[in-house]
Amino acid sequence: MSVCSCSSLAPTVSTIRTSTSNSSSTSSGIARLHRKPQKPLLVMFLKGRDASARLSIVAVEIDHNTAVKRERCECYNSHSSCRVSCVEQERGGTLRAQRWDAEDLAAWDVAKVGEWQRKEGEKVWPNLRRVSMKFEKMEDRYKFAGSPCSCNVRTTHELSRCNLESHNGLFGIVKQVGDEMLRKYHSEQDQASSRTIQLGPVPEGDF
Question: Where is this region: Disordered (predicted)?
Answer without folding.
Answer: 187-207
